[in-house]
Amino acid sequence: MMDLRPVGYVVGLLVAVLGLFMLLPMLVDLAEGRGHAIVFVETFLITTLGGGMIALACSNGVREGLTIQQTFLLTTGVWLMLPLFGALPFILGETNSSVTDAVFEAMSGLTTTGSTVLSGLDTLPKGLLLWRGILQWLGGIGIIVVAMVFLPELKVGGMQIFRSEGFDTFGKILPRAGEIATQIAVIYLWLTMGCILSYLALGMNAFDATVHALTTISTGGFSNYDASFGAFSGPMEYVATVFMILAALPFVRYVQLINGNPLALHRDPQVRGFLVTILILVAVIVISLQQTFSFGWERSLREALFNITSIISGTGYASVDYMQWGPFAVALFFFIGLIGGCAGSTACSIKIFRYQLLFASIRAQLRRIRSPHGIFTPRYDGRPVGQDVLSSVMSFFMFFVVTMGLVAVALSMTGLDFVTSVSGAAAALANIGPGLGDIIGPSGNFGSLNDTAKWILTAAMLIGRLELMAVYVILTVKFWRA
Prior knowledge:
With 482 residues, the protein is mostly helical.
């Protein structure tokens, strides 16, 4: 029988750490003076004591290293347990959220999806608004560590192609994963501070600048206002765009950059592909807006650049209701959300590198058809791609499409219309945030959905954030027999 104590020990420690972060919104609430601070005192005690007791109960099973089964369980268990405890402030707080709404909001935060069931954000206690930002910020750095350390070793969705990329090539500079994780944390913190200062310089107040920086760098998209980023305009949209792009690039390249490789970002095919994709999409939308509306060129460029970057990176901010831009733009935004940023970043969705591997495989296959006797091997970044990586990527695409279809069907069975069901499934599974339509589009939220639909979407957010197969594998009988 599998020993679950090592998994429980790590999960318990992380839950206790989550509880410590509850002290920050408690202090903010104390300063605001609305009497809401007691909520975070209660949740701090419950979470730290609960996590500590779990870790203590499992401490006698701690050992060096985890088996492959324990690693899968740990990866999923962390993202399952943290939202349950992270939901407590919403249940006990001023929102008086139901368990369903609270878990949905916390899961959306920690998976950096950005979908929300809350309305009247402008009037909520500042502690709760900060807590939403903290959840996304912790989820952002958490998924970087998962993508860097766990998923490549678990061979999930083609991530094994980055196994040597992340560690072996650092050999002489950073021989241990722990050192890499430490440098990533420092870079993540500096990007956050840079974003805060940039927002402050353009006129945001200190609280808004802090929360929006937390949700920008995590590409999460929670805002302090029902209008999302529409509460701001002009230069702030450009600043947010820059930091969303920076957060959607592979953090391993930043590590290389600060360790003496100035061309690390430029040489990464992911980075080039991501930036070129954004430029092409922005050009298409700007031309469409110019032909359809009487916008000026600067406004068209600003709104197209901001909203496309927000959706492709999975941030989910909206500065305008792009549902009003016409059917072409709406359809394009749906597919933009299914692209995603770079592997090893805070961005979500399918990821650029998988499309690059898919196109490389298609190109090789077409060449084989033209020249049946030739030998053509798909290549990525100048290196041949192994069959195990290609199989993993193809499996990921298949699982993604099938899962999105099943989630959409399940949502339609709860009474939702076609557009809401399909776009909701895509938004949750790809961790984008807003869907399409009047209900869950950029000008709406998920609060009006029934509880069944919310639980379906909550599960989809978890599955999508952990690259699908990391969750699916633990549902198989053979996994538990191994």
